[in-house]
């Protein structure tokens, strides 16, 4: 591993540190695998999508949102704890990889890093 560690992918903090094979952010508590530059994990190569705690997601699963999310272009908020049923995994815009319909809000895309398998 190089002398400079990457910033936290969750909050962007530059104060990350190594804990065994994991990188940890002291600001938000996010942990992720330390990868050698240019290397991908077997899961990423196979296209496996995992939730915020590492569970493998598949089409038709029910997930729970783990933090409040502002809906872009509106004053609506998806509250933490909201259950989203019958998700569909897609190659969406940016790193949004879940296509779903949320009751009271409508169709939208979510990042797998903000949901947990129910």
Describe the structure.
The protein has about 120 residues and is mainly beta. The chain has one helix at about 40-45; strands spanning about 15-20, 20-25, 30-35, 65, 70, 75-80, 85, 90, 100, 105-110, 115. It has a 3-stranded antiparallel beta sheet, with no helix packed on it. It has a 3-stranded antiparallel beta sheet with strand order 7-4-11, with no helix packed on it. A hairpin with a 3-residue loop joins strand 9 (about 100) and strand 10. The chain starts with 16 loop residues before the first strand and ends with a strand. The relative contact order is 0.17. The mean pLDDT is about 85.
Shape: globular
Helix content: under 10%
**Could you give the distance between the termini?**
35 Å
Strand order of the largest sheet: 1-2-3
β-strand number: 11
> Could you say which structural class the secondary elements and strand pairing correspond to?
mainly beta
Q: Report the radius of gyration as a whole number of Å.
A: 15 Å
Mean pLDDT: 84
Largest sheet: 3 strands, antiparallel
Order of helices and strands: EEEHEEEEEEEE
Low-confidence stretches: none
Strand content: 25-35%
Q: What is the helix tally?
A: 1
Short description:
The chain has 118 residues and is mainly beta.
Topology of this protein?
Layout: E1 17-19, E2 22-24, E3 31-33, H1 42-46, E4 63-65, E5 69-70, E6 77-78, E7 83-84, E8 88-89, E9 98-102, E10 106-110, E11 115-117
Antiparallel strand pairs: 1-2, 2-3, 4-7, 4-11, 5-6, 8-9, 9-10
């Amino acid at each position: 591993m190089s002398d400079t560690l990457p910033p936290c992918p969750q909050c962007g903090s530059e104060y990350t540190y190594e804990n065994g094979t994991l990188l940890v952010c002291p600001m938000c508590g996010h942990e992720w695998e330390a990868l050698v530059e240019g290397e991908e994990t077997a899961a990423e190569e196979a296209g496996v999508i995992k939730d915020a705690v590492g569970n493998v997601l598949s089409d038709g699963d029910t997930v729970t949102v783990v933090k409040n999310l502002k809906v872009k272009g509106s004053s609506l908020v998806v509250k933490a704890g909201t259950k989203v049923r019958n998700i569909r995994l897609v190659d969406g815009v940016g790193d949004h990889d879940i296509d779903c319909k949320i009751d009271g809000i409508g169709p939208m895309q979510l990042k797998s890093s903000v949901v947990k398998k129910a």
